[in-house]
Specification:
The chain is of the alpha/beta class. About 35% of the residues lie in helices and about 20% in strands. The protein is built from nine helices and ten strands. It has an eight-stranded mixed β-sheet, with helices on both faces. Strands 2-3 form a two-stranded antiparallel sheet.
């Protein structure tokens, strides 16, 4: 949705759940020489300023990245260090910057972002060799381009969920994409809300091979999200270990978790 800007929420507990898992998953998929195609359907601006007006207005980063000191030897720790070396100590890497720090020359990145200001900021932060940046609807755009090369792929699906129909749309997109691009793994992030709207997404994934990981925040806000969920659709070998490593690294911000196939 064009009104959504992630700068207000950058570095919060949900970001940690998503980003540490993403970094571990990229490390797993790039352990062998074969290249991968990395794609985002809702890329955002790529790099965020935790000293900026938006982040300071909500203060959400204090309950996320503000509560941990990432190990610089971990994939997420390396990506965070690279981002801050390039953009300053208050910088926080969005998922495109995390991927950029961890991908190799044989890998390719395709980023889609529809919001005009976010798209412009994304191009300013990440444009370069091996990165294709599109201003278009991510679901429509990737279905038009798939399958990508290299054929081994990782797709991050991270809509705002401001529109209730986005839960069903994300599931329908996953089904259609895998029918066209069976070599792809999808990581779908979703919020855990008191209304339980994510149930429609989970049900819509139906018979697809899927590993889900849900965490409850140690200090949930008075209103809004109480936790964060990830669905790894068509998960690679070792995906359960990826999720366990992510929880261990960000453990201070989570009160409880649940994983299931």
């Amino acid at each position: 949705m064009l009104s959504y800007q992630h700068a207000y929420h950058a570095g919060n507990a949900a970001d940690l759940h998503k980003h540490v898992a993403l970094a571990e998953l990229i490390a797993r998929l790039t352990a062998k020489p074969r290249g991968i195609a990395y794609v985002e359907t809702h890329a955002g601006r790529g790099v965020y300023d935790l000293d900026g007006a938006e982040a300071r207005k909500t203060g959400e980063a204090a309950e996320g990245i503000g509560r941990i000191a990432p190990d610089p030897s971990t994939p997420f720790g390396r990506a965070l260090a690279a981002c801050r070396a390039a953009h300053g100590p208050a910088a926080y890497p969005g998922s495109p910057a995390i991927a950029r720090a961890l991908l190799r020359t044989q890998d390719r990145m395709t980023l889609m972002e529809l919001h005009p200001a976010e798209h412009a900021a994304l191009r300013a932060a990440l444009a370069g060799d091996g990165v294709a940046i599109h201003r278009r609807d991510g679901f429509e755009g990737l279905l038009a381009l798939a399958p990508l090369k290299p054929r081994k792929g990782l797709v991050l699906v991270d809509p705002s969920y401001e529109i209730k129909t986005e839960y069903a749309a994300a599931a329908a997109f996953a089904r259609r994409l895998l029918a066209t691009w069976p070599e792809a793994t999808l990581m779908i992030w979703y919020p855990l809300l008191p209304a339980g709207r994510h149930a429609e997404l989970v049900a819509g994934l139906g018979p697809l091979p899927c590993l889900r990981d849900e965490v409850a925040f140690a200090r949930p806000p008075a209103r809004g999200m109480t936790g964060s969920g990830l669905a790894l659709v068509n998960p690679p070998h070792g995906a359960a270990a990826v999720l366990a490593a992510a929880r261990a690294q960000a453990g201070l911000v989570f009160a409880a978790r649940e994983s299931q196939a």
